[in-house]
Amino acid sequence: MNLEIENSVTEVWFDTDDVDDSVSQTTTFESRTKKTVRFYVMFLLLWQSMFKLSDSGMTVLFLYLSMILSLVLAPVNIEGIQEFIDMVPKSTSAAKKLIGEVGDPFLKNVSCPQCHSLYSLHLCKIVNPDKTVSSLHCSHVAFPNHPHSRQRLPCNAQLMKTIKTSSGSTSLYPRQMFCYQSIIEVLRSKLMTPGFFEKTELWRKRRVQTSTLRDVYDGRVWNEFLCPGGIPFLSAPYNFALALNVDWFQPFKYSNYSLGAIYVGIQNLPRRERYLNENVILLGVMPGPHEPKKDCNTYLKPFANELLELWNGIVMKNCSGMNIFVRAALICVTCDIPASRKVSGFVGHNALRACSRCLKMFPTQHFGEKADYTGTDRETWPCRSLDTHKHFATIHREARTKAEQKAIEREYGCRYSVLLVLPYFDVIKYTVVDPMHNLLLGTAKHMLNVWVSKELVSKAHFLIIQQTVDSFTAPSDVGRIPSKIASGFSGFTAEQWRNWTLIYSLCSLKGILPHRDYDCWLLFVKAVSILCQRQVTITEVERGDALLMDFCEYQKVPGNRRTRKNWHPF
């Protein structure tokens, strides 16, 4: 360093050889190290997304890689190598935090294991005067106006359980937890994604053919659904139509443990993209091990409350940063029959008035027998009324006793659903029959069981059918049915049942089934071939409906005087 003093003014300059650049070099090294670690983390998280790996599995992988790096690099005497090792994340959550990804989008609630009431997680731990922590107990009262005081007692189920941590200490953890993701926040995020809104508007440019149904856009609900002012709801941009699906599944292969998924599809999107993984909105996962017995109102209530806000409209921002007015409405509930009854507020499929569209009675002759679902004379079926349904559903919710609720269920076939708070939602009209479960996983599978029980199809026949199917040369987009026919069609998916019904069954069963049974099955195949097309005319729908009516007539069902409960919605 050189100093030169002249006329009381100090001038200072540095020679390049004298510059202490350790600070800048350290900063550069840290920047490069962080970029390297970020690249490493982003690759692993992308790999997780592509192959659908769990967060817990990725945490094990991150720990393993961190240990490998420590063993390999720690002995190397290179400046900064320890900082690099320390910067590598050891869990999935730490990895996501490193790259700036938002944390868990799900709001966690504690679910009562008995009555399924929900409580905020932070309210379920009680700090006692002696500084110990205990669990909150459920305070829900099923019948607060019951005439007997002992029936007005709270549920009182313990919400938290004591677990021992790896360090040896104890902690309280929810016995059951319900995670919910806000539909409003999901829509905010999607509208900030470039190209998303443009995809939701592509349906307006489609070629319209009269009397032809290609997608939900050609249906009456889509075109007749109105705003409060009488304006077509879907005529305005940024108005979204949603379809709700609820389904239970078993996450473990050899365990009777069921979880329930609540998810939504945005119907404005093109059909080819509507149910891709990135476009399906998982709202929540209902805890197990068993399904709720009668309804899932407590789990659907947060969704219903947000739907009310979206019906009135919310200001959001698009990908350009401009304010936009967004509205959304639920126009469809599509589930299998048991789930649809719990979602939309109808009695179970084995009840006296089991249909969600009419009040036809399905009596049993003797206690313990299955109900009689015969009869295809629709003119004699009294249709349900939405106003009447809402009236008695409200009475059902406010009933003083379980006996009063059962009387309403028996007489009117309804229960209360939180979806009734939506002023526009018609639970009778908008709860649709799911053809995948009804036709393929239901009827096609049932007919096979009928043939086996009547000894029309034997194990030897299964081997013959398998040989016939194996001789087919099917197009690549159809695929071949796996070699499961010989084992009795075990584990077939809906797509495999569809391929079996429409492509393989008629040729394979020819000469095995008696003529009467084969002709009955032919009616069903013809109906499915019409109704499962990618586009269908109104005339074809009527033809498919007539074929199903013929199929459902009890005298044409082989060896069975009583039709299936899921045939009535045909």
Topology readout:
Layout lengths: L1 E5 L2 E5 L8 H30 L3 H19 L7 H7 L4 H7 L7 E6 L6 E3 L4 E3 L5 E3 L24 E5 L5 E5 L2 E5 L1 H9 L4 H5 L11 E2 L6 H5 L14 E11 L9 E8 L4 H4 L6 E6 L10 H16 L1 E4 L5 E13 L1 H8 L41 H12 L4 H11 L18 E3 L1 H19 L5 H12 L23 H16 L5 H17 L4 E2 H15 L18
Parallel strand pairs: 11-15, 15-16
Antiparallel strand pairs: 1-2, 3-4, 3-9, 5-6, 7-8, 9-13, 10-17, 11-12, 12-13, 14-15
Description:
Helix content is 37%, strand content 16%. The strands form five sheets. Strands 3, 4, 9, 11, 12, 13, 14, 15 and 16 form a nine-stranded mixed beta sheet that branches. Mean pLDDT is 84; it is low at 1-24 and 555-561. It contains 17 helices and 17 strands. Helix 14 (459-470) crosses helix 15. The chain folds into four domains: 18-98; 106-178, no CATH class; 182-345 and 417-433, no CATH class; 435-567. The N and C termini lie far apart (94 Å). The chain is of the alpha+beta class and 570 residues long. The chain is globular, with a radius of gyration of 31 Å.
